Amino acid sequence: MAEQVRVVLDAMGGDNAPVEPVKAAVEAVAERQDIKVILTGRQDVIRKELEKYPDYRKEQIEIVNASEVIETAEPPVFAVQKKKDSSIVVGMNMVKRQEADAFVSSGSTGAVLVGGQVIVGRIKGVQRPPLAPLIPTTEGVSLLIDCGANVDARPSHLVQFAKMGSIYMENVVGVKNPKVAIVNNGAEEEKGNALVKETFPLLKECRNINFIGSIEARDIPFGYADVVVCEAFVGNVILKLYEGVGAALIKKVKEGMLSSTRGKIGALLVKPALKETMKSFDSSEYGGAPLLGLKGLVVKTHGSAKAVEIKHGIFQCVQFKQQKINEKIAERIMEDQ
Amino acid sequence: MAEQVRVVLDAMGGDNAPVEPVKAAVEAVAERQDIKVILTGRQDVIRKELEKYPDYRKEQIEIVNASEVIETAEPPVFAVQKKKDSSIVVGMNMVKRQEADAFVSSGSTGAVLVGGQVIVGRIKGVQRPPLAPLIPTTEGVSLLIDCGANVDARPSHLVQFAKMGSIYMENVVGVKNPKVAIVNNGAEEEKGNALVKETFPLLKECRNINFIGSIEARDIPFGYADVVVCEAFVGNVILKLYEGVGAALIKKVKEGMLSSTRGKIGALLVKPALKETMKSFDSSEYGGAPLLGLKGLVVKTHGSAKAVEIKHGIFQCVQFKQQKINEKIAERIMEDQ
């Protein structure tokens, strides 16, 4: 059996805590023996929740008490500094001390990003750790890198994002020689804002990545690139608009179908297929967004994540550890310096 | 009868020229008497096309010969300088000499943007003319300003976009006291890149606009704001991703429905409703994007525009002229200087 991967799971984070994180932990260890899940949070609350599952694999689940909870509305830097006994800070400290390999949370994105940087810390040479969710496309998934909180990136940051994203897609998602593109406002090489124009030639020169040039936003959902590189402000717009346009369109389609008897009958018939399609275009199926470039993996799952997403997040950590992603990142970053 | 509005229409521009522009001209004048359409392009080609319509209102359509055509692939600055007898340059010169009030084209976006600035020219005080398409939302339409070719805007540009966009939405689209928001990577006031952080307080202080704060990309398709202000690179990403996510989702839904017999029957039944919905979420229904802040209106319709879109573009020009939008923009811009 492979070495056990130790994943700390924030039992207090997200809209559905502690119910869904605890359920995810129980289901994850039921499926795989090479995982140990360490639940951080209020011990009494977690114990009570675990009692719902009389038969879970006790030897693979541990509880580490943390008396505080960081709320989503709290200013993240202040919260991470002040709430030393919160589930997020306690969990990240375990990764820092190498008592665990990875940390998964559906809690405050800001606190997870801040904690990742100031507690877990960056791999030597990594300038800025990007948050890189997998987004659904008609062909599968692409990695959108960066969607983090640090905006106004420099060209050298984007080059590192391209490298880290390539390693992740190749080794964790399993895409051979992943196509890397930079988000641009046109396909022609002279297009772009100042940042893109400066970054483009650097990516072109970059060894070890399969750079295919610019990608226009229209082509992202069709999977033209496996690794979609952009500055975090733009990444945030892409990620949230994806969600918004999808939701708005579904709302309109439903309303449209229900406005006639013919449509209503048809709606009943297409419902299962429609549901299946929507599921495949739902980013929560893909297990959350890794924060890359840290000394240990941090995965941010949606605030509204259910057990299935959190479980996928845990499995991502296993793949990440077993594929030695951080060793690969450290090597690749140093190569070009 | 109101004074006739003189609209120059590029008969050579777009994928469907001259068929669709000529059709649009014929249909527009059939519907309204307060319009005169001036078709620019190769006289013989336009004449031949017009012969298809034996009964059109001849007194409302004029042809002005232009022997050259600017292709979409040509570098726009060079093309506008060199092809003095192209349909775009000839048409814009008519607006400049006040022989026409507005210019509509489905041709090269770059050439239209360049021509608007260098031939038609800016209203005094306007720093940068924004391209502002109407985008569909679940509530109707919003104005996305700026989606033009000039990226890396300054805060003062964005403030002018907010003002011009408000005037347009109020007077051309008919939204009373339109809600103005700036695209941001979070709802909290401390969020934003350097540009947004600098622009936010300026918009807050701005008189005569109904500024409601930040808008996250997720909320754009739900019509939370009537005027969505952003820098052109971000605007381009929003506009194209709108299109891309919509198209990808429809493709997936169709595939999903056709994968089972039950779904196939249902698909037949929901088809009309689905088609209607898609139409309401199709930006081509809204008549193209105005290039604001010029001494005369310039409207860019899609390269793939059909007659109905071009006709709406022509009607937009009428509303624009009759509502004295440029006089209002000139006043509002000067007010705060």
Account of the 3D structure:
The structure is a homodimer. Chain A has about 325 residues and is of the alpha/beta class. The first copy, chain A, is about 45% helix and about 15% strand. Chain A is built from 11 helices and 11 strands. The first copy, chain A, has helices at about 20-30, 45-50, 75-80, 85-95, 110-120, 155-175, 195-205, 230-255, 260-280, 305-320, 325-335; strands spanning about 5-10, 35-40, 60-65, 100-105, 135, 140-145, 180-185, 210-215, 225-230, 290, 295-300. In chain A, the strands form 2 sheets. Chain A has a 6-stranded mixed β-sheet with strand order 3-2-1-4-11-10, with helices on both faces. In chain A, strands 5-6-9-7-8 form a 5-stranded mixed β-sheet. In chain A, helix 3 packs across helix 5 (about 110-120) and helix 6 packs antiparallel against helix 11. Chains A and B meet through helix 8 and helix 9 of A and helix 8 and helix 9 of B.
